[in-house]
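Case study B.
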Amino acid sequence: MAAKKQKEVHVKQKFSLQLMWKQRYLLLMSVPFLIWLIIFKYIPLWGWTMAFQEVKPATFSLPFFEREFVGFDNFITAFNDRLFDQTMINTIGISFLGIVLGTLSSIVFAVLLNELTFIRFKKITQTVSYLPHFVSWVIIASIAKNFFNDGGVIDTMFNKSFKLMSTNSPQIWLVIVLIDIWKEMGWNAIIYLSAIAGIDTGLYEAAKVDGANRFQRIWHITLPGIKPTAVVLTIMSIGSVLSVGMERQMLLSVPVVQEHTMVLSWFSYERGIGRNNYGLGTAIGMFQSLVGVVLLLIANKFASLIGESKLI
Amino acid sequence: MAKNSTKVMNRTKIQGFDIFLLIFFIFMLVITLYPFLNVLAISLNDSLDTVRNINFIIPRKFTWQNYVYVFEENNIIEPFVISVARTLVGTVVSMVCTSMLAYVLSRKDFYFNKLFTILFVLTMYVSGGLIPEYLLIKRTLNLGNNFLVYIIPGMIWVYNVILVRSYIEGLPMALQEAAKIDGANDAYIWARIVVPLCKPVNATVALFYAVGQWNSFMDTYLYAPKLQTLQYKLYAIMQQATQKIDPHSAQATTGRTVTPISVRMAVTIIATVPILIVYPFLQKYFVGGMTLGAVKD
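Model:
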């Protein structure tokens, strides 16, 4: 009875004080979080208005309308910054390298792991494979430096100075991406493994009967089976091409290579907080977010054009 | 019978590939574990001996000296306590908030259900970005070097709320309804009926928060460099090393032979061990959480 009544209620509800009183506990249990949300998520969004103002530490506490409005000046300053071009190249380069190598390695890892016939060993391998995912970037950086620094493990192993983390060239992108893959490959493979687990085993049986060998089964059944997952994940990552995290970049670079590890988020911080030009920093961050949204929409459109289901 | 024979045939055919896979994954295991073992070995090895050659995974000259030094001379206790405190307090606070909010958002009869859900989910896609957040926390709210900065701003992860909410929606409604007939209010139903039923998903989400808290570095770096966590301490030690501080300065002040690299490796291990301790739970619940997350919202 009660259930029925309730159903009727939430089909047609009108705002009334009576209803609010009836749901007072639900209100009490959610409104504080809504306030939190507005403060910590929506006020920073409003902060985007700073991109169109001249905001320095001294003028930050001024009321909104008393700050100087400068139109798109902050954006123009950002695009003309001597570091901007290199930063864009770094961001896009490291992103694409990461997406391509990261996706490929996760897929290969998942497919090969799925083929592994020693069940016990397979479990151990998978368990160990996502251990680095849970370790912080600071720790990873410490371990990586121990390995790749001048005189580190790799240098000692081959008795040669590779200067892997201190060569000021795009080579550092590859080093960072490889470290990232080392950290995340096993974890990222989980989603592909579950996609593989979702493939109808009847397909494999039928292929076997038809005489398909193992590689043919991988090529014609497993890979098409994980294609939708791969497409969706790639689209999502294209949306975040410009939002390479500052934490990883900062921790894995030594000052010598910063020219090639600087990415947009870091640049925004460097100009906004490091140089105390809040308006400029916000403009860079806003540019990064907006380009991300546009890229996501384009990729989504593209996905529906090539016949994959739309993401959003 | 026929099926059996094809199976056997296949197996003999593919043995080469199986061996290849075995070797490949042993190689992967080595690549994954070697760096950790190497760090552990360095942290347990005599400092001066390490300088000779750092490529080993079994301590050549075993010693606890590096750890003793780190605890006695390197002020590691305070960062450790702060890291533990933020992990415990942060996880508990986040869990209570997440569970409460998820329950309310699972109640389809709640008048503001749709509106609140949209407001929360929207923030997963757009955020103000680093500078506005920094200014809000540091200038407007003045939370710099305040312990609350570790707890409040990252209190709720909307992703986790959605996880818990879909779990609650999957629970049988009968118990909730029975309690309602008995006159229980919504807060009581949440605390006494929903929360106990949510144990698996709560475990997953609590681990998400706990690992996030333990591993968090940027908030200390940006807002609270005076409230050093273990992660930040390790970062600071790394910075010192790159600034080429005299490797034997430690020796000069304490009479102990401890080099920066040994110190760094000991701190690295101290920061990693808690993750290793919860790792069996992590991998049990996280993978579950990962597939839970795949449930379409």
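Residues 1-9, 243-248, 293-297 of chain B have pLDDT under 50 and may be disordered. The remaining cases will be described in the next quarterly update.
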